[in-house]
């Protein structure tokens, strides 16, 4: 009983002494290397060389609605609901729940955080307990190792060992700082994956609507060509037209019919893409179908301030965290060139009887301190420091490239939105003119006043104008979705996001 009390007293005294020493060494240390400072916001006031108009033009067709550019309008987290399509809302909800891409990004975030927590364990001492029983026979040539003359004996040894490397120069703190930045990088990668996935679903839905409209337009042209061919064949039977006219119309019909299978193939492939984005297999039936009549353009388009874009774009924030991590690695490299201090201690007992390990004079303890200053390592530490410097320069250049690409992305989308409605108006006018020309040509054909060349030209012009108009419609929807993506996708307004607004997070690092 007395031995156990003595052992408990020694352990507590040992723990208090070691803790005081560790606290003193750690508190007196400093973190070498540069303190990270967030890059300055680009000193630009706009995205385009010329001011944007307050509103776009309009066209009298689905997808031709007038849209207003609203400065500094916040973006909702579920921005796709502004298209007022229940089918689109349902499909994106399924995609966010079932996408393996998001599952992978979520796992990467968990991995990054666990690696951070693991690295934070370096701040604390390592404590190990061991128990070693042994049976030994010592040669009679040697003196008996025990206080008794017995050469054959059992030995029981139990001890608690503590080892600690004080973070005197902040190498461990810089490594934790780097790991925290990498965990934040994974968080913004997850946000980017959310934005990209929802944007891809919207783009694919618009593509499906476009293909359905193109297929409908092609079938309309085929129906017109079939009726025209039937008329020519009757006129040929009556001797009013030559066989050459009929053959030319048959050739024209075949060419139009030839354009239908590729469109149907693209439609099925787009449906497969939508299924894959939703985490489904292509063979699984998908209820949602998309046409232009089920989509509506948002009336107001957000135009965030340029100073906020670097806060809102998750790819820019991810690049910033990579820069932060690279900055901390410089401190790690510098700390590795400085003296390394180690502290270790052990307390335990040894006896030939297991219940006597801590009795009488059987307990033992030791405290060992050491300091090591690297003197020569073949240039390894120096070159690692230089490599860390180069890594920071690389991350800084990549960050600037990401920022420039973000601004270019927004500018390109704004220019596209400005011109899309003009293209749609021109395409709609061309379609109406081509349709009128075709209708008049068909009437004249019935009266026998036009040749087949005029008819073919009118059919081909209408077909081309119809397809161009459909594509112009699709561009308005696609570019509207692209603007929401280019401005960050509203991830900061997610109800489960710990950040209320992007501007409130990460205002500084140390």
Give an account of the 3D structure.
- The protein is α+β, with helices and mostly antiparallel strands and 510 residues long.
- The chain folds into 2 domains: 1-30 and 126-166 and 340-372, Outer membrane efflux proteins (OEP); 45-124 and 168-338 and 380-504, Outer membrane efflux proteins (OEP).
- The chain has 10 helices and 6 strands.
- The chain has helices spanning 2-27, 86-98, 100-120, 171-237, 243-258, 260-277, 306-312, 314-335, 380-447, 452-486; strands at 68-71, 126-137, 152-164, 300-303, 340-351, 363-372.
- The strands form 2 sheets. Strands 2-3-5-6 form a 4-stranded antiparallel beta sheet, covered by helices on one side. It has a two-stranded parallel sheet with strand order 1-4.
- Helix 2 packs across helix 4, helix 4 runs antiparallel to helix 5 (243-258) and helix 4 packs antiparallel against helix 10.
- It is elongated and about 135 Å long.
- The two termini are 52 Å apart.
- The relative contact order is 0.18.
What keyword list fits this structure?
alpha+beta, disordered N terminus, four-stranded antiparallel beta sheet, 11% strand, disordered C terminus, Outer membrane efflux proteins (OEP), 2 domains, 10 helices, two-stranded parallel sheet, 510 residues
- Report the strand count: 6
Radius of gyration: 38 Å
- The number of domains is 2
CATH superfamily of the largest domain: Outer membrane efflux proteins (OEP)
Q: Count the helices. How many? A: 10
Distance between the termini: 52 Å
> How do the strands of the widest beta sheet line up side by side?
2-3-5-6
Q: H/E order of the elements?
A: HEHHEEHHHEHHEEHH
- Average predicted local confidence, pLDDT: 88
What's the CATH class label of the largest domain?
Mainly Alpha
Strand content: 5-15%
Low-confidence stretches: 1-7, 24-28, 498-510
Named CATH topology of the largest domain: Outer membrane efflux proteins (OEP)
Overall outline: elongated
Q: How helix-rich are the residues, as a percent range? A: 55-70%
């Amino acid at each position: 009983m007395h031995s156990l009390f003595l052992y408990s007293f020694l352990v507590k005294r040992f723990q208090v002494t070691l803790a005081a020493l560790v606290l003193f060494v750690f508190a007196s240390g400093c973190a070498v290397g540069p303190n990270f400072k967030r890059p300055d916001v680009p000193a630009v006031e706009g995205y385009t060389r010329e001011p944007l108009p307050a509103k776009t033009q309009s066209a009298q067709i689905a997808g031709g609605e007038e849209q207003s550019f609203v400065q500094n309008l916040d973006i909702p987290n579920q921005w796709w609901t502004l298209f007022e399509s229940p089918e689109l809302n349902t499909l994106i909800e399924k995609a966010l729940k079932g996408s393996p891409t998001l599952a992978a990004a979520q796992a990467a975030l968990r991995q990054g955080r666990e690696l951070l927590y693991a690295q934070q364990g370096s701040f604390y001492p390592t404590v190990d307990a061991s128990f070693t029983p042994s049976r030994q026979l010592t040669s009679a040539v040697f003196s008996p190792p025990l206080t008794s003359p017995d050469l054959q004996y059992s030995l029981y040894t139990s001890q608690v060992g503590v080892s600690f490397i004080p973070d005197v120069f902040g190498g461990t703190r810089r490594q934790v700082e780097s790991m925290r930045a990498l965990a934040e990088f994974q968080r913004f990668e997850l946000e980017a994956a959310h934005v990209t996935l929802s944007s891809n679903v919207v783009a694919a839905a618009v593509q499906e609507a476009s293909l359905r409209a193109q297929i409908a337009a092609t079938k309309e042209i085929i129906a017109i060509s079939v009726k025209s061919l039937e008329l020519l064949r009757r006129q040929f039977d009556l001797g009013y037209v030559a066989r050459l006219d009929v053959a030319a119309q048959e050739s024209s019909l075949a060419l139009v019919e030839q354009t239908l299978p590729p469109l149907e193939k693209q439609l099925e492939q787009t449906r497969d893409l939508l299924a894959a984005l939703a985490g489904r297999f292509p063979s699984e039936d998908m209820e949602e179908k998309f046409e232009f009549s089920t989509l509506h353009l948002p009336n107001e388009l957000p135009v965030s301030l340029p100073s906020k874009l670097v806060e809102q774009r998750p790819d820019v924030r991810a690049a910033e965290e990579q820069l932060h991590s690279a900055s901390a690695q410089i401190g790690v490299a510098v700390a590795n060139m400085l003296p390394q201090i180690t502290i270790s201690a052990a307390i335990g007992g040894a006896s030939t009887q297991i219940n006597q390990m801590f009795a009488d004079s059987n307990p033992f303890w030791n405290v060992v301190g050491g300091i090591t200053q690297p003197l020569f390592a073949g240039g390894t530490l120096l070159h690692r420091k230089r490599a860390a410097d180069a890594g920071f320069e690389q991350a800084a250049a990549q960050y600037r490239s990401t920022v420039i690409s973000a601004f270019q992305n927004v500018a390109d989308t704004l220019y596209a939105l400005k011109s899309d409605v003009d293209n749609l108006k021109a395409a709609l006018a061309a379609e109406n003119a081509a349709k009128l020309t075709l209708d008049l040509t068909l009437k004249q054909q019935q009266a026998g006043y036009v040749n087949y060349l005029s008819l073919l030209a009118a059919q081909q012009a209408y077909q081309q104008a119809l397809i161009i108009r459909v594509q112009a419609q699709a561009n308005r929807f696609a570019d509207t979705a692209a603007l929401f993506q280019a401005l960050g996708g509203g991830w900061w307004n997610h109800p489960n996001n710990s950040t209320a607004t992007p501007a409130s997070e990460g205002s500084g690092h140390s």
